[in-house]
Every structure is written in C-alpha cells, then in structure tokens.
Specification:
4 helices; Thiol Ester Dehydrase, Chain A; 10 strands; globular; alpha+beta
C-alpha cells in the first residue's frame, strides 16, 4: 500500500531562497510515517508496539518552492522479522519526483523497549510494495567515520530538542550536524544528498560532542555522548567541494550583512 498526502509547502518550511529545507523534509517524512502507522493499526496514542528509526538516505532532485503543491508518498519496501525499510517520495503537480528517500526501522515493544517481531497481521496491514522503488538498492548504507576528525562544538540536549520520549528528536540530529560543520556549508549551500545512521539515543540533559571531517566530496559528522563516549550518530553530507565557490561566498556575505547589521 502506498500512503499519500496532498499538501503545499509552507512558509515555516523554506529557506531564504523560499525552497523546502532538509529539516522540513524530514519532518514531513516523520509525520506521514506516523499517519501510515496509524492506518495500519500502530497508533501513537495507544499501540503497544512502535518503530525506532535507524537511518535515512535522502536525495533532493529539485527543491519545491514556497506555496508549491506537492504529493507526499510513503510505503513499506520490505518488512522482515524485526526490521523494515520504508521509502518516500515527494512529487510535484506534474507527478515528477522532487525528493526520494529510504529509511531503516526496528520494531519494539513500547513497555520494555525490547525488539519484537512484526506480526503477520501487521505485515498484511502495511502491505509492502517491493516493486515500487525510490532507489534500486534496498535500505540505508552503513557509514564509517573517517580517521582524524576535527573536534567541533558541544551541544546540551535541552527540552526544545527532544521528542515525546525525552530523547533528541531524529530531525534535530541533522540540525546539530549543520552547527558542527564550517559555516559556509550551513543553509547557503544545503546538501542535496545526505545519509544519517542513528546508533544510540541522546537523552534529555545529556551533552553531545561533535566531530567533523572532509572525505572526497562529502562532510562527515559524528555525534557522541560526552559522558559515555558512545557514538550516537554518523552523518554524511554531500558537498560539491571543500571550499565555497564565488556564488556561495557572495551569498554568505549577504547573509551575514543582513543578520549582523
């Protein structure tokens, strides 16, 4: 079953160029995945089981603009045992793909947080679509952090960053990654491809320390729990180069002039 929602790009979802931002894309995916789960019988309000997100692979083909009408689609590509692969696409009014994504999930019992197999009834309810493909390959690639990463900022996981379970919200990992990398890569030249591997949760009140490194045409960011030393996320942001081009430099100068009069 392919679950769809028709909507329009809102003002709170765009950047200075009036284009849909990456964090807004992830929020859209978060919402439609929950709505699809509700329809399948795993309502956030009262279900005894739930899905934990383990990773994202997102590719932006074209960024929809403010007020543009879009169709958001999601479906289960594969459900097996305790895991599933959910895919997404955002289409324009002509039905052309603007954004495609894949995501990995693990199925848990909410009461004791243990992994639990997906029942045959749920498998039938989600009605996987193995032939409807966002990508040819199934799933989210596993990331390995480069050696010799540069230490960046520490971030207190405050209440405004957390989800209903008092852990860092999945969308916020990307926002922290943006704050960890050099400023020319922030907002002005938002990556059109990125991968997030979620490893461990960051609870309310913990401190995330961040590290980054350039490798080929990508920037890697690692977020660790400062107290335990555990790696909580590895993030790969696709970039065109390791230094801003003239257009980006000009845009960044204009951004600073407007925001720092």
């Amino acid at each position: 079953m392919i679950f769809t929602i028709d909507t329009s790009v809102g003002y709170s979802q765009v950047n200075a160029r009036l284009e849909l931002t990456n964090d807004s894309i992830l929020k859209i995916f978060e919402d439609i995945a929950c709505f699809h789960g509700n329809l399948a019988g795993e309502n956030v309000l009262n279900s005894k089981t739930a899905w934990i997100l383990t990773g994202y692979l997102v590719k932006v083909i074209r960024r929809p603009k403010y007020s543009e009408k879009i169709k958001v689609c999601t479906w289960a590509r594969v459900i097996h045992g305790i895991t599933s692969v959910r895919e997404f696409e955002i289409l324009d009014e002509e039905g052309s793909r603007c954004i495609i994504a894949s995501s990995g999930w693990a199925h848990i019992n909410i009461e004791d947080k243990s992994l639990t197999r997906v029942t045959p009834e749920l498998v039938r309810a989600y009605d996987a679509e193995p032939d409807h493909k966002a990508f040819e390959e199934v799933g989210v690639p596993k990331l390995f952090a480069p050696d010799n990463m540069t230490k960046s900022s520490d971030f207190l996981i405050s209440r405004n960053l957390t989800d209903i379970h008092n852990h860092l919200n999945n969308v916020k990992y990307l926002e922290l990654a943006y704050m960890a990398i050099p400023d020319y890569a922030m907002y002005i030249n938002e990556p059109n491809e990125f991968i997030i591997n979620f490893r461990k949760q960051l609870p309310l009140g913990s401190v995330a320390e961040s590290f980054y490194a350039k490798e080929d045409d990508s920037l890697y960011v690692v977020l660790k729990n400062k107290e335990t030393g555990d790696t909580c996320a590895v993030i790969k942001l696709g970039l065109k180069s390791d230094s801003p081009n003239e257009e980006t430099k000009k845009a960044l100068d204009e951004f600073r002039e407007v925001n720092n009069p």
